[in-house]
Amino acid sequence: MSSRTNLTREDWIQAAQSVLVKSGVDAVRVDTLAKELKITRGSFYYHFKSRGELLEGILGNWRARATEDVIHHLRNAQTSPQQQLQRLLELPFHGQTAREAAAIELGIRAWARRDKQARQAIDEVDRHRLSYIESLLMQGHMDESEARDRAYLIYAYQISLSLLHSDDTAQERLERNTRMSHILIPEPDLLPA
Predict the structure, then answer these.
(1) How far is residue 164's CA from residue 178's CA, in Å, rounded to a whole number?
(2) Residue 12 CB-density burial (10 A; 0-12 exposed, 13-18 middle, 19+ buried)
(3) Over the chain (193 residues), what is each successive 10-residue block's mean pLDDT?
(4) DSSP state of 26
(5) Nearest to 132, CA basis, from 107, 109, 158
(6) End-to-end CA distance of the chain
């Protein structure tokens, strides 16, 4: 095995996410990762003090990529709240990237069912995502109560897409998503003034 130190912290986190997806959080071990990366454990300890710090890194990386970066990108797209919501609903259909993101999300959600730290991260991310969706609906002149309920429906629909396996073609999934977006996202002229 090599003692390469040119592996980055991000390399270790990505390897750990891969193991998390394949085998669950209990399999995320320094020895397992070192073997998979064909490197000695010394490189790990160059970047992390402990396995716990690596697990924190997984959660932080997921939060940044799957929430902060997405919201930042959508907000800076110079589009209307309705267009941002539409783009948000289209995210699960972005090919391999979307499938990988969904797999990581499912791995973290499974981990959170028995770990307080992961549960806290999930709760924070869920609140942040729901708040963002709710704010987009309210920008479209929807009252707060309806915006909160509709945001929950939109978010539940999005999460369910990663849970449900479908034999539908990509075209059939896209058509269903278009129909669902008409149900979930009201047209601007249908909103109360």
Answers:
(1) 17
(2) buried
(3) 70 96 96 91 92 97 95 92 91 85 94 97 97 95 94 93 79 86 76 47
(4) G
(5) 158
(6) 66
